[in-house]
Amino acid sequence: MEPIHIEEVQEQLDRLANKEVYVHLETTNGAYASHFNENAYNVGAFIRNAKVNYLHGKIVGTNGTYRVGLKLDIGWVYAEGVNQWELDEQERLLMAGHDREGRLMVALEISEQPFKN
Amino acid sequence: MEKHVVVIYPHPDDEAFGASGTITQFRQKGVPVTYLCGTLGEMGRNMGNPTFANRETLSEFRKKELIDACKVMDVELRMLGYRDKTLEFESRDEIAQHLKNILEEIEPSLVITHFPGHAVHPDHNAMGAAAIEAVRLMDPASRPKVWAQAISHDHVKLFGEPDVINNVKPVFDQKMKTIMAHRSQAQGVLGSMNGNAEAAANMEEVAKERLGYESFYTWKFD
Predict the structure, then answer these.
(1) How many domains is chain B partitioned into structurally?
(2) Which residues on neighbouring strands pair with residue B9, listed in sequence order?
(3) A4 at interface of B, judged by CB pairs closer than 8 A
(4) CB contacts < 8 Å between A and B, how many?
(5) Strands (E), chain B
(6) How many Cβ atoms are within 10 Å of A116's Cβ, its own excluded?
(7) Is pLDDT of B196 > 60?
(8) With contact defined as beta carbons under 8 Å apart, do A59 and A68 qualify?
């Protein structure tokens, strides 16, 4: 993955709009968060292969942290904190935010084919 | 002397951090060891340092690392095919039945797994509970012993010291090799154990201090 280039990511969000696509959305601070720091509270959520068709998608943000929102006809998909991206060999748009130690904190991925379960 | 040891953990690297010293000591005595690994750690947060995996490629890396680690330990590997972070939502009975079938085939004398409720990660707790349920469902006459590994902060306060405490420092090089075979995880896990990333530079010392002993409670069925 490489640092987000906002124009390139926007181009991919546009390419995938108004199509049946599969979304992986995830956020987590890790299952050990409160084990290593008693003041921490474990949080996490993920949804894999949500099938959606978004009207438009937009990436906004500056200085290396970005937010991505997908407007659905009756709802929204949204991720905050993505800082890296790649278009993989299957043309899937993979976006993620990592902490300073390189651990994944948030991921938003969009594909025209279902993700492998 | 054990006849055959079966290790049941959910993630590639649980065996390395938790029991690879003990496993190595069994292998040195010629005891066969089989590792039943529940998932491929698909949802791991460590992506290598520097980062080389992404969410979609991580499972392939971790599968390769798992196979390599099992070569280092010289154990048989069976991958159970569950998905990371979902074990506690699966049917406990189904997983227990799955494990019981394998245990009845292998006929081990000892099973090593996580101590349910005291293994911190939800997958650890779920896998440990299913493993113990699998053994409980077996004919009492042919049940293997179970060593359950607790890593919660309060387990000693609640249960006293574990009755099995293995000093694995004599085989620590081998344990370190097993941990390092899990390339995408090793630095991240060792770093976070020490609460700071600089520890990554001093991994071997951190590891020896934290991981030089492997402790287990012998499970009581009754």
Answers:
(1) 1
(2) B37
(3) no
(4) 66
(5) 5-9, 33-37, 76-79, 110-114, 145-149, 164-167, 213-218
(6) 10
(7) no
(8) yes
Share of chain B above pLDDT 90, in %: 86
Cis peptide, bond prior to residue B162, ω within 30 of zero: no
Query: Closest approach of chain A CAs to the CA of B120, in angstroms?
Result: 7
The alpha carbon dihedral of B192, B88, B23, B182 has a sign of negative
Rounded Cα gap, residues B169 and B186, in angstroms: 18
CB-count exposure of residue B4 (10 Å: 0-12, 13-18, 19+): middle
Structure tokens, B172: 């620590």
pLDDT exceeds 70 at position B199: no
The CATH number given to whatever domain includes residue B78 is 3.40.50.10320
Name the residue among B44, B46, B192 with its Cβ closest to that of A36: B192
Of A36, A94, A100, the CB nearest to B55: A94
- Give the residue numbers spanning the domain of B79: 5-218
Asked if B117 contacts B125 with a C-beta cutoff of 8 angstroms, the reply is yes
* Least Cα separation, residue B112 to chain A (angstroms): 22
> B50 vs A102: CB contact, 8 Å cut-off?
yes
